[in-house]
Amino acid sequence: MIASRSPIVRLAIQAASPLAIMIGAFVLFAGHNQPGGGFAAGLLFGAVVVLRTVAGLQRPEHAIGFLAWGGVIVCVCALAPLLWGEPLLNQVVIEGTVPVLGKVKSGSALPFDIGVTLIVVGLILSLLDGLGATDLSQDAQRTSRVRRAEIDVRTGESSGQDDA
Amino acid sequence: MIWALLAAHVVVAAAVPAFAQRAGGRASLWLAGAPMAATAIWAWTQLGTTTTTSVGVEWVTGLDLEFAFRVDAMGAMLAVLVSGIGALVCVYASGYFSASAVGVGRFAATLLAFSTAMLGLVWAETVWTLFVFWELTSVTSFLLVGFKNTDPVARTAARRALVITASGGLVLLAGFVLFVDAAGSARITDLTALSGGQATAAGVLVIIAAATKSAQVPFHVWLPGAMAAPTPVSAYLHSATMVKAGVILIALLAPALRDTDAWKPLGLTFGIITIVWGAIGALRHVDAKLILAWGTVSQLGLLVTLLAVGTGKATFAAISILVAHAVFKAALFMVVGDIDVRTGTRDINQLHGLARSMPIAFVVSVLAGASMAGVPPMVGFPAKEAAVEAVLGLSGFDQFIVGLGVLGGSVLTVAYTVRLLLGVFSPAGTGHEPTEVAPRRWAMSGPEIVLGAASLLGFVFLTWMTDVVVRPASVLVQQSSEVYSLIRWPGLKDAFVISCIIIALGVVLGWLLHRRRVLDGPIPRGAYGVDLGIDSIVVLARRVAATVQHGSLPAYLATTVLVLLAAITPFYAEVDFDVLYRWDNATQAALVVLVVAASIAATIIRTRLAAAMVLGAVGFGVAGLFFGQGAPDLVLTQLLVETVIVVGFVVGLGALRRRFPAVSRPWLAWRIIASLCVGLVVAVALAASASDRTGTPPIEELTEGAVNEGGGNNVVNVILTDIRALDTLGEVVVLIVVALGIVALAKIRRDEEASGLDAHPIDESDDERLLTEDVTT
Questions:
Q1: Interface of A with B in 103-122 (CB under 8 A)
Q2: For chain B, which residues make up each domain, given as ranges?
Q3: Which of B240, B385, B533, B711 is the most buried (most CB within 10 A)?
Q4: Do A54 and B720 touch (CB under 8 A)?
Q5: Tens of pLDDT, residues B231-242
Q6: B312-343 and B244-257 helices cross at what angle (nearest 10)?
């Protein structure tokens, strides 16, 4: 759709995705002390996924994997303390000094947050699936490939497959 | 050891299906039998123990919830029966199923899972543990009864069994709540005799729950139907396990609840009616398996009666019969399954002269049948003697009513045993050819021989049976039963004379009924009645759902708005206008103008994409307001949510028309009213909550907790991941469920499109479809 009409949008999204993912990762890890956290990071990743869908770029196809891994991680984080006789969902804080980064403080809340992130991404993927966006992005990929092929024919040089 | 055995059960049960795919169904049955055999051997070494081994982990400290097991003499005895017969059933099933049978791996896994549940039930130390395993037996037996899941009869029977036994489970839960409250402890090992109204109610509920599981009239209707299961299942469920669960429950709780007012009368009512009605049922049927099933009902009635009587002798007799019944009934079911497999029928009218062609089955049947009828030299004889003596030990009305049930039931038991044996094994009369028989399968004959011999050996080693098996267990239920023994040869006392009369009357009755051939069994009206009840509940549920879930979006919205309006009525008075002020700074005013303007614009704009953008503007404006309040986390989340929603709209709009369809005037008015109502509700709710602050804000406590315990400076995130992590866990579970639902719905739609059954095609030309369908019409 948009991608087939506007190469600018397409390229912009393509260029912005890695940045957005880095910001998402930052938001996830920084969330314990600064604004952010699992939900926010999941939404950021989700926004990337939605934008790439609109632009017909490659993106994760299936929600189930995200949901399953997120669910497993969250449940393990919730239940693991029981093995050591601690109450459900008890948090352990670990502190240590790491080269380059310096003093690092983290805890079992981090994997819990990662699980939440995965679930949110899974939810957004499933919403896209529900809107029939999977076909949409495939269509878009097909059209854009056709267009580039046309351009290739006209200019006489190969641009290769850079969808990934 | 207890943990190791239970863990072995669970691990092997999980591994069996995969193993079955590589090694085949029969091998998987042997694998499934291994943990059962190990348990039986270990439990055998614990027989007659005077100590109690308990293990447990505390599950929730404050609620006194404990996941605990105990093995005492009773637990060991029952485990030998449950696991020992279970292992034999596994061997038997490996012969019962043909090599080409499908789903045997599933069968083996389910059988082992059921056995695990049953083992947990007999070893449970707290009533809560017992309850969990009680329910697990209901569920796993449902899977076993419905094993032939393509057969509607089996499915209906399984559903019936589940509904009845699971309803009993609910009753049991209520009973346990009352019981634990009255007793002050959930442990089974330290019971004290209770009395009073609450204990009486608990007793009534426990007896009713036991009656559903142990197939007491009128809850017995599920048991004959459960014969739709493969015969190994019947041999297991209806001898040593499932149906005994109720009896075991009564035995375990009898020390505490025996003295309550309703315990004995209710137990006797259930028991005595069941003895007689079950035995009559056994005499009316022509299917050998159904004869045994109804016989089981009758025997369960006997057990409940004896336990309800509760004297030392009666308890002793009950435990003896419980053991004897498990052994002989398993053997008889196995023989019937053997006959079914090798001749193709279980109808006693069509079976003739099997004594000659199936000698092993014949001998085993005679041994087990004699034990069932209470004929020496079988272990069933001294057990039944004990029951008769228990009756003689009573007096007055009790003796009359219990005697009527026990003695009358015994006569009928002898009669249906004789009728069954004559019907199946007697030489073919004139005009009947002996039934053709397929070759012997040793995997089936072996367990039959073991169990048939066990009935005999129990009588040979009667002293051991008394001292090691029955009495130590019986003493745990009723201390005064320690003086009794199983007696091999009682001499010409009253009880023996009565036994002789019982056997004589029974043989004559059985022979007469054998001569007067019945062509077809009675119609199971009770079972059909239950099915009708279940069906009508389903129909009612469908109607209610169709009425409430009508699918009209405007009507749902209207309902929501009306409920909200009603819900906030008490809060109008709470609003304190003094706490409301204009703004913190003028930027907020600008943002509010933006939000309000965008909101109004969203209602006017006719282009869908533009409306989505304007809605996005509302969201971003609200994010700005959050920022003004100093809530960066909210801002971040709000911005991201709005972004995803707007882009999501763009994705979704691709499938819709460019512009909103026209709206008729009355509809427009209604929508404006509804919108204003929502606004009113939110405004009043917010104002009221801001007006009525009584406690101190928890901000300081939370901040301190976040930094010191959660180890984070972002209080919001620490609340989410640590302080209120359980809430977050619940929320993400909801998210997962919602997402899975969406995926499933999307898949259904894709499948329908793929198969050309597309009911709602999405394309530009189709104007009247999609989200606005209801609004336009």
A1: 105, 107, 109, 112-113, 115-116, 119-120, 122
A2: 267-518, 554-691, 715-777
A3: B240
A4: no
A5: 999 999 998 898
A6: 170
